[in-house]
Every structure is written in C-alpha cells, then in structure tokens.
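User: Assemble these into one structure.

Assistant: Restating your components, then the assembled model:
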Amino acid sequence: MTSRHAEVEQVWPRDGRVLVIGRIVGTAPTPPARTTAILTLTNRDRPDLVLNCPATVDGGRFQAAFAVELVVSAVATRRIDGRQVWDLHLRLPGEPEPLRLGRHLDDIPDKKTVMTFPAQTGEARAGAVSVKPYYTVMQNLSLISRPVQA
Amino acid sequence: MKLRYLIMNAYGVGGTIRTVINQANVMAAADHDVELVSVFQTRDRPRFSLDPRVRLRSLADLRGPRRRHPVREWLRRRPSLLVPPSEVRYAAFNRLSDQKIVRYLRSLDGGVLVTTRPALNLLSARYAPRNVVRVAQEHMYLRSHKPELVAEIARWYPRLDAVVSLTDADLAEYAALLDGSRTRLATIPNGLTPAERAPAALDGRIIVAAGRLTRQKGFDLLIKAFAEVVAEHPDWRLRIYGDGREHGSLRRLIHRLHLYNHAFLMGGTTTLEQELAKGAMFVLSSRYEGFGMVLIEAMAHGLPVVSFDCPHGPADIVAHGRDGLLVPPEDAGALAAAMKALIGDPSLRHALGDAARTSVMRYDMDGIRQAWERLFAELLTGAARVG
C-alpha cells in the first residue's frame, strides 16, 4: 500500500459492465471538484498493453465504469490466449503517478476469498471470454479474463 | 465427586465437544475428580483448551500409519454391531470401538458416568454396571433423531439414572417417550464460559451471523432476507462467520442477488468474540438447533438478536420484545422485517441489547455447574439408598 491510493468501496459487475466506486485517500493535493480522470487496465504480462476508460472525480470521490467488451475485444484483436490479469489504476490529470485501486481501510483481512464477484461474459469472434473483478492477496483490485470453454 | 465424561472424539471441533470440555473444566476447577474419555483419538492434543486437572484418556487411538496396526485396521473396517445404523454417526463407529467402549464401561466402579451422544448413551444403558450413576446428555433434541433410533432410546434409556436435555420443550418429549420409567429427567442448558466480552458496536451498521455453512443454519434464508433489507438500507452490511460445505452455493446466491458489496462469507474465526463485538445486531437463521449457544454468546455482548423461533433453544433463550426478537421459523420476509425494525430504531437496539446482557447472566457457568452438582448429588444419594 502506497501513501496514496484509490480506495475501492463498491464494485458492481452487472449487465455487461463493471462499475467501480471509491475515494482517493492519502496525502498530497485533493483533486479539484468535478474533474475527469482515466481508469486504466494494465495487462500484467504485457505492461505496454493498457486499456483506458473515463472516470469522474468529485471532491475526493471517484467513479468509473467500463463495458466488459473493452477487455474482450482487446484480447480478441491481439489474439491473446488463456488467462489474463489486468491491474486497475486511476490516472488523475496533472499527476505523474497513477493511483492503484485497492481496499485497505477496513478490518477484513482476506478479501481475495471474502469479497468475491461474479464473472461476466462477452462474445468475441474466437469465442466467449469471461471477465471477473477480484481482490489480490495485496488487497488491490484487478480483473481476470479467460476464454469460456464452449 | 468422581465424574467420567465419555465423548466420541475430544480431539475434534464442534459444539458438543466444546460444551463437554467446558463442563469437564468447570467441574475439575470445583475440585471434583474428573476424567474425560474420548472413544477416538485422532490428534495429539484436543483443539479446545483442557484444564490440567482433567485427566484425558482415549479408548481407540487412530494415530499412526495403517500398515503398522493391522489388527486395529482390520477391526476398524468392520461395521459396528452395537451402534444402531440409525445413529447419525453410525459410520464412524466400528468393531474396534465396540470392543473398546464395552471393555471401558464394564471396568467402571461407582461414581458418575456422563455420556454425550445417542450411541454412547445406549451403550451406557446396556453395559455400564449398576453401581455407576449413568447420565445421558442430549446435545440435539429427541425429534431430531430417526424413528428407528427413537425406538432404541425408548427401549434402553429407562435403564439410565438420568436424561438431561438442553431445553424444557425437548424434555417434555423425553417425558412422553419414557413415561413410566424411573429415569430422572432434567433440563440443564449450556453454560456461558467467562471471557472478555466487549460491548457491541450498536451504532455501527454491521449485522453478524455465525455457524457452520450447512443447510441447518439457514444462511440461504438469511441472505434472501438481507436482500430485502439492503433495498431499503444500502449502507448496512452482513457478515457470516463459519466454514462448511454450502460455501459455494451461498456465494453463488450472494452473486445472483447482487449482494457482493453487502454480504460477506467471512470464513471460520477463532476470535468470534471480537467479531461479535463489531456488530449492531446478531441474526440466527437456523432451521433447527440443539440449543443455539451462539445466541447467548451474542447477547452477552449486549447485542440485540433476531432469531427464527425454530426448534430448539431460541424460545428458551429469547423473550420476544424484551431482550430480542423472535420471528416464525423459515419465514425470510418476517426475518427481513425484524432486521428493518431494528435498523430503523437505534433506541430499540440499545434497549434489547441492554436487556440481553442482563438476561443471559442466568446461563453463567457457576450456576450451570451448581445445577449439575445438585443433580449428581441427588442421583448418588438415590443410588446409595438403593444399592
């Protein structure tokens, strides 16, 4: 856990989308009210493969939603096979370092097994791909994408 | 007093084991001569802490590699001839335990023998000498047993000196079944062991539940009821403590009802006291219980409780509207309504919680120990007069 991070409060994988709600915590300047930021999904094995979606930041709170198609199409067009992990960050305007999304400020130790989320499936030409948010052993928020066996 | 507690496996984890070890501990601390006898031994030490004054022995030691104990393994593979197949734990007994238990029972001479599950109660009735005061404990309730086992109970329990139930309602069932026998019937609930119990966080927004993740505990009903609660009170959370074979299906239910931000399967915990103290209310959603000890533990923290009025225990423990809320069993809608009533009325939470902390003092371990001592003394006196 760094000195500053994006503390996740709710994750809603629903209706083909993933909505993440939380707040920015830690030292350093509070971002201005009602600004636009970027939620990034970084492929853990290919750090140069980064997917972006818009996020809103307001008074220290953030919210971002993306369609699972964002991940499904990225996997399909690059013909990436197998299980992929995507790490989520929030990139604030004017800040060099993106903030890792995670959940560190409660008393629940083992989120990887306690706070779990359903997978959602998107269709690609090569077949269906499932996308599932999960907390890592470091209590950070990531996604797993994997082909669905027909 | 010379007290012998016979238990199936003192080395496991579970409600009966914990309760029996608590009883043995408290009796030994009161200077009685206490021996805890475990039919099976599967580990080097019991999981629950045992007072050093309690002597622990086992009858069938199952530790060590199978091929080094060919006779033991041969006997272990043969099904029990003495335990009725209708006993829930029939499959765990075998020819080895038959032999060891009978030999042990026949070796007894005087004192009190307390047996702790139907198979052992039946064997005590059949094989323990008449100069031993034989007391059977019911840790579930009579009607939870299969009819074939109830028939065995009706046949053999009249030979026992006493049958002890956890609730009056269950005792009435035993009285009807054993009508005409001279067996003494008594109700003695489980005692609350002394522990550090911090006052609960009644102004927080956490609902706590705890128990094995099995169908018996009704967590499926609780999760459905909680979905109704969240629709009106999205800032409340549900934490369910425990492990069990329903983990996967309960998790799928949480996902299907979109409760993944609100309801959490927390896993087993060895520090339930600390977790109870984080709650603003406790919910017991069981389809049935032997007693519902966890309700008493929750109430000792000053937690307001909502419980199904299921057999057996909750109605003995909770006075509806005074120190908790009882709702009709398996009625998820009524459970949700009661939770919403407590959420909407913090002063009710405090009033019920305060009353709960006081009312469970009647389960204080000292009082329970005295109830056992009175019963044993009465039975020993009766035995001396007769014999």
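Chain B touches chain A at residues 251, 255-256, 258, 260-261, 264-267, 278 (CB under 8 Å).
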